[in-house]
Amino acid sequence: MEQGVKFLYNVDPGGEPNIRTPAGGVDEQEILDAYSNAVVSVSESVSPSVVKVEVSQAGRGRRGSEQAGSGSGFVFTPDGFILTNSHVISGARSVHAVTMEGGRYEASVVGDDPDTDLAVIRINAPTLQAVRFASSNRLRVGQLAIAIGNPYGFQTTVTAGVVSALGRSLRAYSGRLIDDVIQTDAALNPGNSGGPLVDSAGRVIGVNTATIMPAQGLCFAIAIDTAKFVASRLIRDGRIRRSYIGMAGQNVPILRKITHHYGLPNRSGVLVISMDENGPARNAGLVEGDIIYSFAGETVEGIDELHRLLTEERVGRESKIGVIRRAERLEIGITPLEREFIN
Predict the structure, then answer these.
(1) Annotation marks residue 87 as catalytic
(2) Of 127, 82, 113, whose CA–CA distance to 230 is shortest?
(3) Catalytic annotation on 237?
(4) Assessment of whether the complete model's pTM goes beyond 0.85
(5) 112 among known catalytic residues
């Protein structure tokens, strides 16, 4: 409500409140109705596609004990494919999906990608309603964003807010950065993970994935353009192929006299701390203490940049990795291998 605008409120003899519109102002009830109608319409059209994802995992207590957990997901094809978060189903012994009508169906894990925190599961159920997708590259900050999910097990809970920011980066459980993340102030809580973030037309714009717990209104969703690509690969291959070179490192500055001497654009690089035995880095001849400044002709100023360059296309193909060893500049041939992620 704007400062200085007053609404006259009184109770008539019958006990009913009378609310007057400010003189010369806009009927606030009409504004609220337009907003409410958008949220109601989206809720009614999308909620039938949202499922509660129930998982059971091996417990850490006595032998044979199990732990139960739950999250959210949404049907994106009529034949039962469901998008959810990787961390929802990671390590699960069994997965079930519960529809809005109360049907509970056993789900099979089709594919899982911890690096983007996305997973696809599938159920065999009649008359499933699939969501519609938007394109996340057309989003604008400030537009309406509606989240639907199952926070703390309360099924098909709807919250609304706006797109707060675009192009954020979020670190996945695997340690890699997820790029092109949507920030929203639509309230998310544990159990919302894997549910859809939807625009005012009822189209999915993101997959809800995380909140910053001490803060209020700092919630994040994986952009749907990323999710569509990952989901298609998971359905086809069951995984996303990425390459690795078998080393651990940390970001360090590079001395200016070295970058100036060799004409490098870097201000920093990746210090090699350790390497896998018989891994690509050790086999290529890298040593602890090397500072990586480039890979495959691209500048590397940090671990996240190196991760982004280690794509599927690099698997089994030799590339040049640039390193500073003491004060010497070297370019070494290295052949990345396919990275396997173990839950």
Answers:
(1) yes
(2) 113
(3) no
(4) no
(5) no
